[in-house]
Amino acid sequence: MGLQAPLWRAVTVFRVAALVYATILMLAGFRDFTRPWLGWAVLAAMTAWTAVTGVRYHDPAGRSRAWLAADLAVTLACLLVSNLVVSAERLASGGPTLPMAWVAGAVLVWALRGGRRAGGIAALILGAADLFLRGEITSATANGTVLLLLAGGVMGYVSRLTDDAETRMQRAVELDAATRERERLARGIHDSVLQVLALVQRRGTELGGEAAELGRLAGEQEAVLRSLVGVQDEAAAAGSADLRLLLGRYGSPRVTVAMPATPVLLPAAVAAEVAAAAGSALDNVAVHCGPETRVWVLVEKEPDAVTVSVRDDGPGIAPGRLAEAAASGRLGVAQSIQGRIRDLGGAVAITGGPGEGTEVELRVPLPR
């Protein structure tokens, strides 16, 4: 029904309340009317029109310009008939007209349908009619017109706000639906195509020969497909980066990268530092291990942290080797890996021994 539906219902409630007030005034003063029967007829017309517009405006299709024009015409007619029921002296002295505050209902629906400008036009038309009845500008005429203008302006402003809010809500719903569909497709691709490509890459490398070339091509296509799956919506990625895209470039026939199917979003600077630290760990494998050494990079996203593990099946690290390297001025691990992660508030764990391979675990807390 939209966000404006409650506003249209509120206008109907206002009209009913204003009608009750006009009825009370008529019961109190109908004996002073020049034509009491006409006053009761106008009240009956106002009652019927309140019911008709309440039903009509409940349906958005009934809020056409023709109906709004008819609404203003009926309201104007009920107001002008006051000249035949209420004496001229009483009107000139500031006495109430027959519909009283009920006339504001037309101003509200015009503002709700057409904005502040339309509400202002309706208020000026009714204000001019009130001036015609009283014959001169009085405090009652001025106050009534100003109140109608204020009502039209406020309702028009609220109407515009609800339109903007409804548009934003619709966009948010569409974006959420698109994101869910993209994640569903990403999970499907990750569970099927990417796993098959990874299997072809691994088996091709093990078999060698032409199969190795096929495995290499499969690895390249896996990296490209991961990049396509990881494309972010601009709104979601503003100021952030998907860690999967940064680490996916390290994938090769020798390096297997395993990542979640959904984005791993981090502030762009944090993601760049984590990727650089992982790259340094891979560089160490390339320098200190043989060309046949295989490496596995695993990315895990937890509720409060992101963990990147770089594990190889190389010769491992001898006890005390890292301390000796730092003492001799070789700070690749101490600065490029541990220093980067420490500056991000995270921690690095390096495990392994001779003949057992090495695992470097980078753990970075997620920003609140």
From TrEMBL:
It holds the Pfam family HATPase_c. Residues 1-165 form the DUF5931 domain. The keyword Transmembrane applies. NCBIfam families: HK_morpho_MacS. One of its GO terms (molecular function) is kinase activity. Keywords: Kinase, Membrane, Transferase, Transmembrane, Transmembrane helix, Two-component regulatory system. This is MacS family sensor histidine kinase. The chain crosses the membrane at residues 12-31, 37-55, 67-85, 91-111, 140-159. The lineage of its organism: Bacteria, Bacillati, Actinomycetota, Actinomycetes, Micromonosporales. PANTHER family: NITRATE/NITRITE SENSOR PROTEIN NARX-RELATED, OXYGEN SENSOR HISTIDINE KINASE NREB. The gene is macS. The keyword Transferase applies. Residues 280-367 form the Histidine kinase/HSP90-like ATPase domain.
